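Q: What would this chain look like folded?
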Amino acid sequence: MKLLFLCMLLCMGSAQAEEIAHNTKVNEWLITNAMVVVGVGTPAEGPKDIHIKQGKIQQIQSSREDSELRKAGLKTIDAKSGYVLPGFINMHVHTMYKRAGIEMAQPYQHYLWLANGITTIRDLGSDLDETLKQREQSAKHEIIAPRMFVYPGIWGNHLEKDLEKTIKNYQKKGVDGLKFGMMDKQTFTSASKIAKKYGLKVANHVGVEDMNAWDNINAGTTTIEHWYGVPDAALHGVQNFPPDMNYSNELHRFRYAGRLWREADLDKLDSVLQGMVDADVAWNPTLVIYEASRDLQRATSSPWFNDYLHPGLEKFFQPSADSHGSFFWGWTTTDEVFWKNNYQIWFKALRDFADKGGIITTGEDAGYIYQVFGFGLLRELQLQQEAGFHPLEVIKHATVNGAKVLGQGDQLGQVRIGYKADLIIVNGNPLADLSVLWPRNIPTMTGDETTGGIVWTLKDGIPYHVPTMLKAVREMVRKARKENPIDYLVQ
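A: My prediction, written as structure tokens:
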């Protein structure tokens, strides 16, 4: 306990008797001396005291030692002029329980998401019954996990009568929406009509099909995932695939995806983007999940692999035709050069979309292509800044915009009175440097390691101590590696 108090002294200020502890369910308490980023794109304000009661933000007022709130003797966390942001909303996740045949205890993902500031996830296709169970457990605070919105996946081509049966069954189970993937136009049109009938939102991974973003525009899709379908809608005819192109071969699939944006007609693309805005189709680009395509060396040597890469992920990431996204057995410098150019055109399309009033959100799609849960979302923020967005805009994408798309804009995504107390407390100023969010820079309890710039993550007003969760994850990984010895990318 003394070591814990010492850590809090080093991290965030005074560790007094009334200091709140990890995973403490307290009806009423305070965050003091906080620089507040509301989430709507306005500059930070502070220092402020944030009064939390029954899991919601009750008051926000200027920090004063003589305030009535301070005099009430409530338990506190002293932010010590650190920054408080809304919790991040990860709009593209897959909850995983096993990878490459290796069991992966679920707290591994949950702790990493929370430790990286993610308080809400939108699950786009996992074990449905288990994910629905965990959604309920998370809502009741029976497990330490982000709040969950569940969108089961429907992939490929189906008859309308079968779609009706499937979607009706999903709706009865209480899902929040649906994820469509790689459907032909006929299937997509039917599925979208049925989803609308049952009041379900739709996230769509278009793929290379006989449909594109115009079909999403006509159907009123909630979000386009990744970017498939957007440049496709601005081609003259079809993409210039080579004669030996095999879409089932993922080396081919991702190689020629890196040549797609350059073939889009810019005038036609402008019309597509405007059409998405007019139809209120949001864009969840997941820039991070393709980054290995432009810089494989960076992707395979991420520093957090040392402590946080589960052996199931490590094995799955090895180049193999049997693992989705593990297509790098024949990757070349030429492929990377095309992808670097691809990103620049993609970045501009995102900026143009936002300038027209389009809604951009953030997601990671981790568990594939060298991306680790939570870390991927933080890298997504950096890539959106690279695309040309101010850090305040990036944070808005990760908070306000995600909440709006989920239909939770009046409850989540802002540091505002009456909103759920889903917050992160950062030891540093992420507006000056988004990298302060990464798990580093903060002494652990022993003082001989560093963990992260996010010190506390709150969900429904319950504070979770990031160094404590990260320590638990490191122990999970060490145990899993001992039980499943394989060769690691990083020694």
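The longest strand covers residues 28-36.
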